Amino acid sequence: MTTVESASAICSMPTRAHAAAQYIRMSTDQQQFSPDAQKQAISEYAKVHGIEVVRTYEDAGLSGLTLRERPALVRLLIDVRNPDRDFDTVLVLDISRWGRFQDSDEAAYHEHECRRAGVRVVYCSEPFENDGTPFASVYKSIKRAMAGEYSRELSGKVFLGHCRLVRLGFWQGASPGYGLRRQLVDANGTVKGPLAPFEHKAIQTDRVVLVPGPANEVALIRKIFDWYVNDKISTTRIADRLNVMGLYNPYDRPWSKPTIRAILMGEKYIGNNLYNRHSVRLHTPQVRNPPTEWVRSVAAFGEIVDPAIFEAAQFRLTRYSRGVVKEEIQAELEHLFRRSGHLTMRTMARQLHVHGKSEYRKHFGSMAGTYRSVGFTPTYNYDYIDTRRQASAIFHEFVANLSSTLMREGHQLSLEHGETLMLVNDELKIKLNARLCAHEGAQEQTWGLRWPDTYDIDLMVLVLFTRMPVRISGFYVLPLGTVPAGKMTTICAQNIPALSSFYFANLEVLAHLAQRSALEISGGRRPTARE
């Protein structure tokens, strides 16, 4: 009596003479290799040769290219190694049912593993005896190669068929995406109705086209293009905006930069049918094909995005991907300046395909340098930006040098709050505060500071900067209580005398303040740095 094995079946019956397992791999019910046809042919072979089929391993998957989707064959290969198995022969209809492996040696290896475990593999409908003779080996090698070649040829024919249908304007495979829906038409182009997600056509001659989806989805697709092209909003900010609005992407998940980018690059939104951008053939890893291999049918469907808007989006995406060169930006700036007579960040953001101030700073050093490159003098003085940038660079170098000095002298150090809060020896908290001089020249020099009230510190080091040139002119080392917390304090001519004892030309004093002293207070306890 035959038993059907699942992938988790366990052999336990003792081996009997002429007992066999049959391996069935389904092709399609319309072909001679349907499961029922295979079982009938194997049954007739077993009856003639006095073999009893005691176990069946059946794979329902259509592909014979790999083991990955064939759990029954995997189970069979495991069971043949079991000394308590109840069969000593494996019956297979023919070599192609064993597998259409693209490497013919893989099929030979699996058969060899069975033979090594004492189990014969018999191909019932092949015109030779699988007896290990040279003829049998050569014949099997040829048939294995032919089995693999059949899959390659079939794959090529299917691909060419898909390409032909794409060029005729019919949708192949994949989900249509947000804002679009699949519609079924017959061989004459007559509309038969929409196809729901995961629904397949029932008649082979029917075809699928794309049509606009719900009005709210179409409106959102157009809005995404408008935000990106006209408002110059980045893909990340668009995704954030949609998530804040409580909207979800086509997969019912939050929007992300890649999803927005995929929509902006989707030619289907201007009616183009695009195919073969990526391919996975014969169960090999997915590859990205060059544009020369893409199959495109222009205006195959109705557009839901204006082609001019779409082209503008592609231009911006391309520039963002490859980076914008300085000469391109400068040419666009000069054109905009000649046309309008002035430049502002708002007009530049709307008219130019440049991603923010960082792109200008990368090529021209600053916004002031950007304006100067085309001969424009803004009414607002942007020199302060360059000054602050220079002061910031000097300050970070100063913090690095100070940290190195303290650590060389054996102090433990950690930096917080953007390297402006220094904790020395886990005891002394020092706030580093860089301040540019507010006025210079004929007017008196002033500096502003604010003692933090959101966290505790022991000392504030006020780093004084001059503007022309930008350099450090000195330091105030202010202990707790010197200035009120949470309020702005201005250091000027009136209060400089009162604070003069806290002024230093360098920070050697800081190293002394960080030193530990061995003191004792009542009870023999050593005090902390704050005590």
Short structural description:
With 531 residues, the chain is α/β, with parallel strands linked by helices. Helix content is 37%, strand content 18%.
Query: Overall pLDDT, averaged?
Result: 79
Range of helix content? 25-40%
Report the strand count: 20
Radius of gyration: 39 Å
- Topology-level CATH name of the largest domain: Rossmann fold
Oligomer state of the chains in this structure: single chain
Most strands sheet: 6 strands, mixed
CATH class of the largest domain: Alpha Beta
Number of domains: 4
In spatial order, strands of the major sheet run 13-14-15-17-18-20
CATH architecture title of the largest domain = 3-Layer(aba) Sandwich
Q: Determine the strand fraction and express it as a percent band.
A: 15-25%
Can you tell me the CATH superfamily of the largest domain? Resolvase, N-terminal catalytic domain
Number of helices: 16
Spatial gap, N to C terminus: 92 Å
The residue ranges in which pLDDT falls below 50 over 5 or more consecutive positions are 1-16
| Helix-strand category | alpha/beta
Query: Quick one: overall form?
Result: elongated
